[in-house]
Each structure stands twice: as structure tokens, then as C-alpha cells.
């Protein structure tokens, strides 16, 4: 009897004292199933209670808990370490811990446990923005992933071309697709989106063709487009086969959400206007789009600064730059030069044609000063005056209100 009392006190100190000893013989999975039913009766969303049920079930299975009496902090800490080793975001790891703790609190309220044995386990350290440190794939990495993906190829391809989240891909139905429209698109139901807001996602022609090819004859509009959306472990294997590391050189993680980050980064690389970029990402905050869904490693910043204005103070730029600015970069042996009065008197000619003197014109905006024998170069970045522009300006002046018509 004394031994029984001491055992009960030890269990109470550990937080696993059962109020009803008969519960000891019940499998822990039965309690987890009852907990899910309780959440459903409370009016929780199906997506929520199914996710909680799946997380607690996985935790119990990988910790080796068959009954409530076997719940131990050491097992939970080991399980959380395994999740961190899978490169899951700290937020996701903490959600596993939170779901399991919520289950245990429910057990306490229903007199199945006297205390919470996991009370002392703290959340995984979650530095600011750590959950958003996802790396984007390069086009080469994306191609390798598609090559080794096998039956998951279409899933990855659609994710890369639309930016759909994992949950949205899981909820995608054939009836949500508008592939025969003039502008093919996906109509996302509010219940299937993260923001609980109905959205429209445009589709490229290549995505439309692949979805049409995958649409089986007789498929119901309520059937899922993707029957199996892989968890991180299966996707990690695909990444390994494609030669994609777990982290990039800056410590950012490659995971399923990287496909959405890749979509956003490629939009930025393509020069899409920020407002359009935000709309395609289906964000309501521009900061979210620019800060978390654009990987700066893949942006061509060197090319961007070349577009800054020339501040050379009137000095002549190099020949290649000058030719490019005047639109004559296809002419290798000419610089932008002003037409002189002599060429005007001869009459202008189109680039590549011969003038009245039999001399071949090398292009509008480039000529030789016949009197001085030197090239006249206009200010860099401006088109030199030409017969066409002078004639056009004269015509425009004649059309201004109050101007006299030409005689």
C-alpha cells in the first residue's frame, strides 16, 4: 500500500497521475480521436481539427506513446529535435508542440490526466522573421527538380507557375479550373485560401496545356486535382535527387514554400510592376511581397545600376553607349553626328539608301561635316536634329491654335 502511495505521488509530481485508472488501458490514439471529435463539436473548421489531429497523432507515434501514462518530456524534446533536423520552420515546430499541449490540457479537463507533463518544454527559439527565411530556386534548380519529380512533376510545375500554397493545392478541385476561357485561370474558393478570401489566379499557356492533358475523362468537378501533396520528407528526397541543398549560402532553407518564394522572385526578375507583383502573390501588403517573397540573391543588381542616368557632365560617352542611346548600335563604324546644312540641301535619304550625290547614307543622325572634315557629336543621350524631326516640328507648329497655315 505504501509503495502504491509513493508511486502515485511520483506520478503526480511528473504530471501524469490519472484521475480514472481505467483510462490506463485505453490506447492513446482513442483519446486523440475523441479530442478531434470534441474540436468538431466546438465548431472548429474541418481543416483546423484535421490538422491538429494529424499533428498529435504523429507526435504520439514518433515518440512511441501507446498510452497516456507513457507521455514523457524527454520523448517530446527528441521529437522536436527531429523536426528541427528536417529544416522545418520554428513556427511549424512550435505548432506541433502547441497541438500536443492542447490535447493534454483537454485530457486534464476531462479527468484523464492530473497534470501536464510537457508544461516545462519551451517553444523552439523563433528569431524575428525566421519562419520567412526560405530560399528561391534558380531556373536550373527548378528544371532539375521537375526532371526527377516523377508523378509529382505537375504539382511542382503548377506551384512554380502560380505561387499556390500547399493547402491551396490540396484543396484544388477540377471544378475550380477555367481552362477553356479566353484567359485561362483558377477560381480559388474562399474556404480553400489562407486569407479565407476568394481569389482568381491567371494561368500561363504552358500550365493550361499540362492541366488539360492531366484532366482524366470522366473526372468529377469535385475531384482533387492533386491526390497526394507530399510532406516535407518526401519532398526532401526529391530535392536531394535534384542536387538542391537543404540551405543556401546565406542559411535560407529550401522547402515546399520555396516554390512560392521562387514564383515571387521570378516576377521581380521579370520586371513586373510592384503593384501587379503584389496582386499575383495575392497579398494585401506590399512590404510582405517585397521583403519575404523576393530572394535578393537572384536579382540582377549589377544590370539595374547600369540604367542610372549619365552624369559625365557633357563629356562624350564611349562609342558603344552613344550608339545604343541613339538607336544606331547596329552600325559599327559610325558615331551619332549631326546633319549639316549641306546634307539638308542635298535632300535626306533613308538609312542604307544612296543620296542625290551618290554617297551612301549611314543613317539618320550620323553624317560627315563636308566643310570641316570632322565628326560633329551631339550631347550623349539625345537624338541629333534631323530632316524628319524638323519637318515634324514644323507641321506640329502649323496645327497649333492661332498659327497661320503654310502658304
SSE topology:
Blueprint: H1 2-14, H2 28-41, H3 46-63, H4 73-85, H5 90-109, H6 139-148, H7 153-162, H8 166-171, E1 177-178, E2 185-188, E3 199-202, H9 205-214, H10 232-241, H11 258-269, H12 274-281, H13 286-292, H14 301-305, H15 319-326, H16 341-346, H17 387-398
Antiparallel strand pairs: 1-2, 2-3
Structural class: mainly alpha
Largest sheet: 3 strands, antiparallel
Per CATH, the class of the largest domain reads Mainly Alpha
Q: How far apart, in Å, are the first and last alpha carbons?
A: 126 Å
Strand content: under 5%
Spatial extent as radius of gyration: 34 Å
Mean pLDDT across residues: 76
> How many strands in all?
3
Counting DSSP H or I runs of 4 or more residues, the number of helices is: 17
Number of domains: 3
Order of helices and strands: HHHHHHHHEEEHHHHHHHHH
- Fraction in helix: 40-55%
CATH level-4 homologous superfamily of the largest domain: Intergrase catalytic core
Instruction: Name the poorly predicted regions.
Output: 331-399, 403-407
Coarse shape: globular
Order of strands across the widest beta sheet? 1-2-3
From the 3D structure, determine the CATH topology of the largest domain: hpI Integrase, Chain A
| CATH architecture title of the largest domain | Orthogonal Bundle
